[in-house]
Description:
Blueprint: H1 2-14, H2 16-19, H3 24-27, H4 35-44, H5 47-69, H6 77-98, H7 100-114, H8 117-128, H9 130-175
Amino acid sequence: MRIAVASVFILLLATGPVLAQTDDAANSSQPKPSEESLRHLLEVMQAKQLANAAAQQVDDMFSSMLNQALAGKNVTPEQQKVIEANRAKMRDLMKDLLSWESMERLYLKVYADTFTQSEIDDMTAFYSSPAGHAVIVKLPLAMKNTMSEMQERMKELVPKIQQLAKDTAEQIKAQGAPAPKNHPG
Protein backbone atom coordinates (compact mmCIF):
# COMPACT_ATOMS: atom_id res chain seq x y z
CA MET A 1 0.00 0.00 0.00
CA ARG A 2 2.75 2.46 0.92
CA ILE A 3 4.56 1.65 -2.30
CA ALA A 4 1.47 2.41 -4.35
CA VAL A 5 0.89 5.69 -2.53
CA ALA A 6 4.53 6.67 -2.83
CA SER A 7 4.64 5.71 -6.49
CA VAL A 8 1.62 7.84 -7.25
CA PHE A 9 3.09 10.70 -5.23
CA ILE A 10 6.37 10.56 -7.13
CA LEU A 11 4.54 10.44 -10.42
CA LEU A 12 2.53 13.48 -9.40
CA LEU A 13 5.66 15.35 -8.41
CA ALA A 14 7.43 14.35 -11.59
CA THR A 15 4.55 15.78 -13.55
CA GLY A 16 4.09 18.77 -11.24
CA PRO A 17 3.26 21.43 -13.81
CA VAL A 18 0.73 19.04 -15.32
CA LEU A 19 -1.29 19.15 -12.11
CA ALA A 20 -1.49 22.91 -12.14
CA GLN A 21 -3.44 22.93 -15.37
CA THR A 22 -6.47 25.10 -15.80
CA ASP A 23 -8.90 25.55 -18.60
CA ASP A 24 -7.45 29.00 -19.36
CA ALA A 25 -5.41 27.77 -22.35
CA ALA A 26 -8.32 25.81 -23.77
CA ASN A 27 -10.57 28.88 -23.58
CA SER A 28 -7.89 31.35 -24.62
CA SER A 29 -7.83 33.05 -27.97
CA GLN A 30 -4.03 32.86 -27.92
CA PRO A 31 -2.40 30.33 -30.21
CA LYS A 32 -1.55 26.87 -28.97
CA PRO A 33 2.16 26.27 -28.56
CA SER A 34 4.07 24.66 -31.37
CA GLU A 35 5.42 21.17 -30.92
CA GLU A 36 8.90 22.56 -31.51
CA SER A 37 8.54 25.03 -28.63
CA LEU A 38 7.13 22.32 -26.37
CA ARG A 39 10.03 20.00 -27.14
CA HIS A 40 12.46 22.85 -26.49
CA LEU A 41 10.83 23.54 -23.11
CA LEU A 42 11.04 19.86 -22.16
CA GLU A 43 14.69 19.86 -23.13
CA VAL A 44 15.44 23.00 -21.10
CA MET A 45 13.49 21.56 -18.16
CA GLN A 46 15.52 18.34 -18.43
CA ALA A 47 12.22 16.49 -18.27
CA LYS A 48 13.76 13.26 -19.55
CA GLN A 49 16.32 13.25 -16.76
CA LEU A 50 13.63 14.03 -14.18
CA ALA A 51 11.51 11.11 -15.40
CA ASN A 52 14.50 8.80 -15.13
CA ALA A 53 15.34 10.15 -11.66
CA ALA A 54 11.75 9.56 -10.49
CA ALA A 55 11.91 5.94 -11.61
CA GLN A 56 15.19 5.49 -9.75
CA GLN A 57 13.73 7.08 -6.63
CA VAL A 58 10.82 4.63 -6.66
CA ASP A 59 13.30 1.77 -6.96
CA ASP A 60 15.34 3.15 -4.05
CA MET A 61 12.20 3.67 -1.99
CA PHE A 62 11.05 0.10 -2.68
CA SER A 63 14.41 -1.19 -1.45
CA SER A 64 14.26 1.00 1.63
CA MET A 65 10.73 -0.10 2.52
CA LEU A 66 11.65 -3.72 1.97
CA ASN A 67 14.72 -3.37 4.17
CA GLN A 68 12.59 -1.79 6.90
CA ALA A 69 9.99 -4.55 6.65
CA LEU A 70 12.69 -7.23 6.85
CA ALA A 71 14.84 -5.49 9.47
CA GLY A 72 16.41 -8.01 11.81
CA LYS A 73 15.06 -11.00 9.88
CA ASN A 74 17.28 -13.55 8.24
CA VAL A 75 16.45 -14.00 4.58
CA THR A 76 17.11 -17.32 2.94
CA PRO A 77 18.64 -17.47 -0.54
CA GLU A 78 15.24 -18.57 -1.90
CA GLN A 79 13.54 -15.59 -0.24
CA GLN A 80 16.25 -13.29 -1.61
CA LYS A 81 15.43 -14.58 -5.11
CA VAL A 82 11.74 -13.75 -4.56
CA ILE A 83 12.68 -10.28 -3.32
CA GLU A 84 14.89 -9.61 -6.34
CA ALA A 85 12.27 -10.98 -8.76
CA ASN A 86 9.58 -8.71 -7.31
CA ARG A 87 11.93 -5.76 -7.27
CA ALA A 88 12.65 -6.38 -10.96
CA LYS A 89 8.89 -6.53 -11.66
CA MET A 90 8.37 -3.23 -9.86
CA ARG A 91 11.30 -1.69 -11.73
CA ASP A 92 9.84 -2.85 -15.06
CA LEU A 93 6.44 -1.42 -14.16
CA MET A 94 8.00 1.92 -13.32
CA LYS A 95 10.11 1.91 -16.47
CA ASP A 96 6.97 1.40 -18.53
CA LEU A 97 5.03 4.05 -16.65
CA LEU A 98 7.83 6.61 -16.51
CA SER A 99 9.67 5.80 -19.72
CA TRP A 100 10.61 8.90 -21.63
CA GLU A 101 8.55 7.78 -24.64
CA SER A 102 5.45 7.60 -22.46
CA MET A 103 6.17 10.75 -20.47
CA GLU A 104 7.12 12.82 -23.53
CA ARG A 105 3.76 12.08 -25.19
CA LEU A 106 2.01 12.96 -21.94
CA TYR A 107 3.92 16.23 -21.55
CA LEU A 108 3.43 17.25 -25.17
CA LYS A 109 -0.31 16.65 -25.04
CA VAL A 110 -0.99 18.15 -21.63
CA TYR A 111 1.26 21.17 -22.08
CA ALA A 112 -0.22 21.86 -25.53
CA ASP A 113 -3.74 21.62 -24.10
CA THR A 114 -2.90 23.70 -21.02
CA PHE A 115 -0.48 26.46 -21.92
CA THR A 116 -0.41 29.14 -24.57
CA GLN A 117 2.59 29.81 -26.78
CA SER A 118 3.40 32.88 -24.71
CA GLU A 119 3.36 30.89 -21.47
CA ILE A 120 5.59 28.20 -22.99
CA ASP A 121 8.01 30.90 -24.12
CA ASP A 122 8.04 32.42 -20.61
CA MET A 123 8.56 29.03 -18.99
CA THR A 124 11.42 28.30 -21.37
CA ALA A 125 13.01 31.61 -20.46
CA PHE A 126 12.62 30.87 -16.75
CA TYR A 127 14.04 27.35 -16.92
CA SER A 128 16.93 28.70 -19.00
CA SER A 129 17.76 31.20 -16.22
CA PRO A 130 20.03 30.42 -13.27
CA ALA A 131 17.04 30.24 -10.90
CA GLY A 132 15.16 27.97 -13.27
CA HIS A 133 18.20 25.77 -13.72
CA ALA A 134 18.52 25.50 -9.92
CA VAL A 135 14.90 24.32 -9.73
CA ILE A 136 15.62 21.66 -12.34
CA VAL A 137 18.83 20.45 -10.71
CA LYS A 138 17.42 20.41 -7.18
CA LEU A 139 13.96 19.01 -7.94
CA PRO A 140 15.01 15.33 -7.64
CA LEU A 141 16.58 16.04 -4.24
CA ALA A 142 13.48 17.97 -3.18
CA MET A 143 11.33 15.01 -4.26
CA LYS A 144 13.52 12.58 -2.33
CA ASN A 145 13.45 14.77 0.78
CA THR A 146 9.70 15.20 0.50
CA MET A 147 9.23 11.43 0.30
CA SER A 148 11.42 10.93 3.39
CA GLU A 149 9.40 13.51 5.30
CA MET A 150 6.11 11.97 4.13
CA GLN A 151 7.24 8.52 5.25
CA GLU A 152 7.98 9.92 8.71
CA ARG A 153 4.57 11.57 8.84
CA MET A 154 2.89 8.36 7.73
CA LYS A 155 4.62 6.49 10.56
CA GLU A 156 2.84 8.86 12.95
CA LEU A 157 -0.46 8.88 11.09
CA VAL A 158 -1.00 5.17 10.42
CA PRO A 159 -1.24 4.12 14.10
CA LYS A 160 -3.65 6.99 14.76
CA ILE A 161 -5.85 5.92 11.86
CA GLN A 162 -5.72 2.30 13.04
CA GLN A 163 -6.70 3.36 16.56
CA LEU A 164 -9.54 5.50 15.23
CA ALA A 165 -10.85 2.57 13.17
CA LYS A 166 -10.61 0.30 16.23
CA ASP A 167 -12.41 2.87 18.42
CA THR A 168 -15.15 3.28 15.81
CA ALA A 169 -15.65 -0.48 15.56
CA GLU A 170 -15.84 -0.72 19.37
CA GLN A 171 -18.40 2.11 19.54
CA ILE A 172 -20.55 0.42 16.90
CA LYS A 173 -20.35 -2.94 18.74
CA ALA A 174 -21.23 -1.21 22.02
CA GLN A 175 -24.40 0.18 20.46
CA GLY A 176 -25.47 -3.33 19.56
CA ALA A 177 -26.83 -4.71 16.34
CA PRO A 178 -29.43 -2.58 14.60
CA ALA A 179 -33.01 -3.66 15.09
CA PRO A 180 -34.54 -5.37 12.04
CA LYS A 181 -36.59 -3.03 9.93
CA ASN A 182 -40.27 -3.72 9.69
CA HIS A 183 -41.30 -3.83 6.08
CA PRO A 184 -44.99 -3.38 5.52
CA GLY A 185 -46.12 -6.11 3.28
